[in-house]
Hints:
By secondary structure, the protein is mostly helical. 97% of the residues lie in helices and 0% in strands.
Amino acid sequence: MVKVATFFAMTLGAFVFWQSMDKVHVWIALRQDEKQERLEKEAEIKRYRAQLLAQQKQEDSLA
């Protein structure tokens, strides 16, 4: 009886462990996706800003 109870407890513990690890991996993946999106957005803003500054310099040199 003790062996059966131990087996059941270990099986349940392994199941809970794998479920929590799955949730941790999903959480990490979501954070990485958010970070990547934020970096892409910041890069786009920098490119647009550089373009606007170049346009401003060009307009200033023509004036």
